[in-house]
Design goal:
- The protein is α+β, with helices and mostly antiparallel strands.
- The chain has one domain.
- The chain is 27% helix and 22% strand.
- It has helices at 55-60, 68-80, 95-104; strands at 7-10, 17-20, 27-30, 40-43, 46-49, 62-65.
- The strands form three sheets. Strands 1-2 form a two-stranded antiparallel ribbon. A two-stranded antiparallel sheet has the order 3-6.
- Strand 4 (40-43) and strand 5 form a beta hairpin.
- The longest helix has 13 residues, at 68-80.
- It binds zinc ion (ZN) (2 copies).
- Residues 11, 13-14, 16, 66-67, 69-70 line the site of one zinc ion.
């Protein structure tokens, strides 16, 4: 055992409660005033990418954890491409993937 503790977190996307390493968990920035990332605008109930986020919204946004289920779903949408994935950049890592890598390097003699 590495002695690392997992935290109970609430997923910013689906609201599920999940356990993850707080240092490795995937995070998104959420504007507490809207509940959405600062680069997302909601038009007619649909989330749309906002290429010019309001600097104030970026400032007040907070890093919020995202569960592995949502990371995988998001990556699957991205792989299929199309409109829904148009603003998605790069694959996201699940916290377990990142955790494995970060804590193993130099961790074991
Ligand atoms: Zn989730
Ligand atoms: Zn970790």
């Amino acid at each position: 055992m590495t002695g690392l503790e997992l935290a109970i977190l609430d997923c910013a996307n689906c609201g599920a409660r999940f356990m993850a390493c707080p240092q490795c968990v995937c995070t998104v920035r959420i504007d507490p005033q809207t509940g959405f990332p600062p680069d997302v605008r909601v038009i007619d109930g649909k989330a749309v990418h906002n290429p010019k986020p309001d600097p104030e919204a970026v400032q007040r946004s907070e890093k919020r954890p995202v569960c592995d289920d949502c990371v995988r779903k998001r990556n699957a949408i991205r792989q299929k491409g199309g409109k829904a994935a148009a603003h998605m950049e790069g694959p996201w890592e699940t916290w377990e993937e990142r955790h494995d890598r970060t804590h193993r390097e130099g961790g074991r003699a």
